[in-house]
Amino acid sequence: MKTFKIDWLVLPLIGVACVLVAWSVSSATWAKELPSPLKTWEASKPYIVEPFAKRGEMDQGILRFTWYSLTLVAQGYAISLLIGTPIGFFLGLSKTFTKIFDPIIQILRPVSPLAWLPLGLVLFMSAGKEAGTYGALFTIAICSMWPTVLNTAVGVRAVPQDYLNVGKVLKLSRWKTLTKILVPATLPYMFTGFRLSLGIAWLVIVAAEMLTGRPGVGGFLWQEYNSLIYEHIILSIITIGVIGFILDRLMSLVEARFKAIS
Amino acid sequence: MAFLELKNVSKGFGGQRVLADINLSIEEGEFVAIVGYSGQGKSTLINLVAGLIQADRGEVTLEGKAVTGPGPDRGLVFQNYSLLPWLTVQENIALAVDEVFADWPTEKRLAHIDKYIAMVKLSHAKDRLPKQLSGGMRQRVAVARTLAINPRILLLDEPLGALDALTRANLQDEIANIWQSERKTVVLITNSVDEALLLADRIIPLTIGPGATLGQPVAVHLDRPRDRKALNHDPEFKRLRALVTNQLLDFNANRKVSLSKKLTRPDILPEDLDAPRVNRPPRRPGEEKRETILA
Question: Which listed residue, of A19, A122, B62, B103, carries a Cα 20 to 30 Å from A2's Cα?
Answer without folding.
Answer: A19
